[in-house]
Design goal:
CATH architecture of the largest domain: 3-Layer(aba) Sandwich
Distance between the termini: 12 Å
Number of strands: 14
Order of helices and strands: EHEEEHEHHEHHHEHEEEHEHEHEHEHHH
Largest sheet: 8 strands, mixed
CATH class of the largest domain: Alpha Beta
Number of helices: 15
CATH superfamily of the largest domain: Glycogen Phosphorylase B
CATH topology of the largest domain: Rossmann fold
Number of domains: 2
Oligomer: single chain
Radius of gyration: 22 Å
């Protein structure tokens, strides 16, 4: 099968994250199974236009990626993506097109003329982004940015989100939360949406060894920004019950300087250790070390399906997280960790103390987390489900 993938950025671009990593995993998995995969993306800062990597061909298109007045700009991604795709499609037709979010909206609008089936992958929704912004109003500056960006969000809500959702042949939502939101926001029939969780390849053999004799150690991995709730984590140690616990933080971001200042001001140098950014291959070893009794996820973002939770689960670490977005798809409350009502930080600390007081439960939930990740969130499961949809569409 020949598959075209449209995405706004790739892992070759400087600014990439979970969406681009998921796309890489999906495309390379399809290529390993013998499918021909071509990824189309804006060139942006890259100094090359074509690349082949791990069986996947990449085409980087020189174009503008502005939504406003795009119809008047022939160099806009909407127009250029159609033009370049047609050149490839006319030589050897594609069977299926994947649109990562709205990146393939140009192809979707012309899919009848192009005679190609299109699957759109929704990683989140516009209202979820607005809710995230509302959750993160903590000063005048953040309120200003919310008001400034609201007009853009509303244009997307009434424009591109409906375009790439309602006009695709099928839609994949990365979590049950995203599926529910799409139905509420676009009124798309439920039967036109499938939930396929993002999967990963996670090197691990056997059971995770238990190396927690050094005490109760918690882990946070992610961007060091207020939206991830990182600013709240220093408050854990205000609770007398948790004075002896420790927290390891892995990541980087604009809040790093403020975080370090808070740690010094509150004399928490012995409680909190910051590792900064860590290469992914090293991160795998950290998850698998058996050192950590809990993974903390106090996010204020409404995320589609946070992959960092899946990685922690593969490492056998139970999770304590706020119940926002797709978090509940990962955490089975009381079985693989605890879902805490958003902003209820007292309950968040209570769950930490419960784990601290019940080491057997930590081990039990950690093993349940690992087994769930292996059975539901592997890359192989993800790819198999996508192929099933492809075959149904093109038959």
């Amino acid at each position: 099968m020949k598959i075209a993938v449209f995405i706004k950025a790739t892992t070759f671009h400087k600014l990439h994250g979970g969406l681009e990593t998921q796309n890489k995993t999906l495309c390379e998995g399809l290529a390993r199974l013998g499918h021909k995969v071509v990824v189309f993306s804006p060139r942006r800062e890259l100094d090359f236009t074509n690349k082949s990597h791990n069986g996947v061909d990449y085409v980087f298109i020189e174009s503008d990626y502005r939504y406003l007045f795009y119809s008047l700009n022939k160099n806009n991604w909407f127009h250029k993506s159609i033009k370049i795709f047609k050149e490839y499609h006319e030589k050897t037709p594609f069977d299926v097109v994947i649109s990562q979010s709205s990146a393939g909206v140009g192809i979707i609008s012309n899919k009848s003329e192009l005679n190609v089936k299109v699957i759109s992958i929704a990683h989140g929704t516009i209202m979820a982004e607005i809710q995230t912004a509302l959750n993160n109003i903590y000063n005048f500056r953040s309120l200003f940015f919310l008001l400034r960006n609201l007009q853009y969000a509303l244009r997307q809500f009434f424009g591109r989100q409906r375009d790439y959702i309602l006009h695709a042949d099928h839609v994949v939502a990365v979590s049950n939360s995203v599926k529910r939101q799409l139905i509420e926001e676009t009124y798309i029939p439920e039967e036109r949406i499938s939930v396929i969780h993002n999967g990963i390849y996670f090197p691990q053999t056997g059971e995770v060894s238990d190396n927690r004799q050094q005490g109760f150690v918690m882990l946070f991995v992610g961007q060091i920004i207020p939206e991830k709730g990182i600013d709240a984590l220093t408050r854990i140690f205000e609770d007398p019950r948790l004075k002896s616990t420790r927290l390891h933080i892995i990541g980087d971001g604009r809040y790093m300087s403020d975080l370090k200042t808070k740690i010094l001001k509150n004399k928490l140098e012995n409680n909190i250790k910051i590792f900064g950014s860590v290469p992914h291959e090293e991160l795998v070893s950290i998850y698998n070390s058996g050192v950590y009794s809990a993974f903390l996820f106090p996010t204020r973002r409404v995320e589609g399906f946070p992959m960092v939770l899946v990685e922690a689960m593969y490492g056998g670490i139970p999770i304590i997280g706020y119940n926002l977005g797709g978090v509940s798809d990962a955490i089975d409350n009381g079985e693989t960790g605890y879902l805490v009502p958003f902003k209820d930080f007292d309950q968040f600390k209570d769950k930490i103390y419960y784990f601290m007081s019940h080491p057997d439960e930590v081990w039990k939930m950690g093993e349940a987390s690992r087994k769930k990740a292996q059975s539901l969130f592997s890359a192989d499961v993800m790819i198999e489900r996508y192929i099933s949809i492809f075959e149904r569409l093109v038959q």
